[in-house]
Every structure is written in C-alpha cells, then in structure tokens.
Write a structure and sequence with these properties.
The chain has helices spanning 20-35, 56-66, 82-94, 105-114, 161-169, 212-215, 230-241, 256-266, 301-311, 321-336, and strands spanning 7-10, 39-44, 76-77, 98-101, 142-145, 174-176, 183-185, 198-202, 206-210, 220-222, 245-249, 272-276. The two termini are 20 Å apart. By secondary structure, the chain is an alpha/beta fold. It is globular, with a radius of gyration of 21 Å.
Length: 337
C-alpha cells in the first residue's frame, strides 16, 4: 500500500514583503511537507485586493526562492477564486447555515450593551445573532455562518490515514464534556462527540477547544464591501488543493475552530494543524509591519534561515542553503513526526 500523499502550503498575504516572522512560517511548512516526503505549495491570500500592493506577490516568491523554498505546484491566487467561494456560500445559505446580516459594528455594540455584554479589551465583538430570524426590511450588508446549530450529526472527514493514525495514538485522551468539569474519553475515531465546543488536536499545542457560538458568535463569510472573508476562502482552498497539513504561526490558532466548523458544514476534510512559535516585536507582540518588522534581507539567505530555524527549535546549520535545508528536514522529522 502506498503511503498517504502529503501536501503542505504557505499562504502569505501580498500586502508587504516577507519579514523574519513570515520566514518562520514558510520554513516550518516547507520542512513539514518535505520531512513527510510530500509536496509544498504557495497560495497568495489576496482575496482582499484593496490591501494588496502591486508586485508584492512576485517579490514574496523571489524572497522564498532566495531561501531555497520553491513551490512544487502552480501558485494559487485567492483573487481568482471568487466563483468557488460564492458556490460554497450559496450551499450554506440554501441549507440555512448562513444568512444575510444588516448589522454594522455600532449596531452590534449597541445590541451587546442592551443585553449587558461589553466588548473585552483587545477582544472582538461577539455577534449576538440579531439577524438570524431575518433582516426586517433592512438591506443586507454581510453574510454570516450560524454557530448555534447542533454539529453532532455533521460528518467528520479525516483527510488520510496519517491523520487517522495520529488520532488513534491519542485515543485514550480525555476531553471536556459540555456543562461539566468532568472528563470523558474521546469519541470513536471518525466522529466527534456532540460538544458545544469545537475540539481539535494541534501537533504542537496539544488538545484545543473553543466554543465558537459563545466566544466568537456567528462569524462573517462575506463582508459588507463584497470581499469574501478569510475563513471561507481558506477552508474552500485548502480542500480544493487537497492540503493535508496546515503549519502556520500560533497567532492563527484562534481561527482553527471556525475553520473546522466551516469544513464540517461544507462536508470538507479537516487537515492536521501545527501552530509554530512566533517572532515577537519590540512591543512584545507578534512581529508585523505595524510594530516595525523589516523586510526580509535575503542577501545572506542562510543567516535568515538560521534565525528562523532557531525559533523552531532547530540547530544551526552551515554550508550551502540546500544542505542546511536537508539537515533541518532530518531534525524536523525527528522532532514532529
């Protein structure tokens, strides 16, 4: 029997050049795919064309190539995928899993104040479901996924036998039951227990859980400006490309429960997830353009790669870039596989 096909991806937004933190995610996703004898692709998350800068996608590919990271597949662009996203949204709407919403942010804030809920500091507004029962004559601004539905009968699609084997290894693990502080055994492989919270196993962070309905609320699938939301686009594209392993920065871990909920609503497979450590800026937050991240200097690519490898807990390498990447593939295989 042939081994399962492994496909990883790196999905940057072409709003600026790669920086040190971006390279950590790119290197980790590439190493993970290669350590499993799989393929690695690049997908440009340019669905929000208003934020993307001309020529930036090409620059990002040049930066990756200078570091020896070449896509094994044609590069995908979300900006060319609107038809696929609309098809998915239509499917959800027809099954009453998505609905139009007329609320502005101020409307949501006012509704939350009315029920005695305040926006947490540095937190997001939890949508209270105002438009679930209709718009009452107001024009639709956006489209949202219902998170108050019972997911217990939704299928769980394991993406391959590698994922199934990993879940089998932790079949004795315990998970929290709803409305209880007790622990219950994980459900039968291939199903999830009918929990209020979405649960998943992160390959680095361990078991994760989020009650999307109460912590996030019905989340946006298509924005008021007509752009499809990140959550819908990434779920549709991961499935369309056959992505088996998502390796990305820990700042995106909070999105995982929403994406799993969407995968199950659309009947799409759930890949394995691994969220890597972050590079922090001077203010202690994730390094980004907003807190002074400098464009990745690829004049000396091995130096940049060694810095990224240190963040991932890998030993420094010397020699040619290709030789260093080969050394890190071996280290990664021993550490995470």
């Amino acid at each position: 029997m042939s081994p399962p096909h492994i496909l990883g991806r790196f999905a940057p937004s072409p709003t600026g050049p790669l920086h040190a933190g971006s390279l950590v995610a790119a290197l980790a996703s590439w190493l993970d795919a290669k350590a499993q004898h799989g393929q690695w692709g690049v997908r440009m998350e340019d669905v929000d064309t208003t934020r993307c800068l001309p020529g930036m996608a090409e620059l990002i590919l040049q930066q990756l190539a200078a570091c020896g990271l070449h896509s094994d597949l044609p590069v995908w662009h979300q900006s060319a995928r609107s038809t696929a996203y609309q098809t998915a949204l239509t499917s959800l709407t027809e099954r009453q899993l998505a609905y139009p919403c007329a609320c502005s942010r101020s409307d949501i804030a006012q509704a939350l104040r009315h029920i005695g809920q305040a926006k947490p500091r540095h937190g997001e507004l939890v949508y209270p479901g105002t438009c679930r029962q209709g718009l009452h004559g107001k024009p639709a601004r956006a489209w949202r996924l219902r998170t108050d539905v019972d997911m217990s009968n939704w299928p769980v699609a394991l993406i391959n036998k590698a994922q199934a084997a990993m879940l089998n290894e932790v079949s004795n693990a315990c998970v929290m039951t709803p409305n209880s502080s007790s622990l219950a055994p994980l459900g039968t492989l291939g199903t999830l227990p009918p929990l209020a919270a979405v649960q998943w196993l992160d390959r680095r962070l361990g078991w994760q859980s989020q009650d999307v309905a109460h912590e996030v609320g019905d989340f946006i699938l298509k924005r008021a400006d007509g752009c499809f939301a990140y959550q819908l686009a990434v779920v549709v594209d991961d499935a369309a490309q056959g992505i088996t392993d998502v390796v990305r920065g820990a700042d995106l871990a909070d999105n995982t429960a929403r994406q799993i909920m969407l995968q199950r609503a659309l009947g799409l497979p759930t890949p394995r997830y691994l969220h890597t450590p972050l590079v922090l800026g001077p203010d202690g937050h994730k390094l980004s353009k907003q807190n002074g991240a400098q464009a990745l200097n690829t004049t000396h690519p091995l130096a940049a790669l060694n810095a990224a490898a240190r963040v991932l807990g890998l030993a420094a390498a010397s020699g040619a870039v290709a030789d260093a990447l080969g050394q890190w593939v071996t280290q990664w295989r021993g550490q995470w596989l």
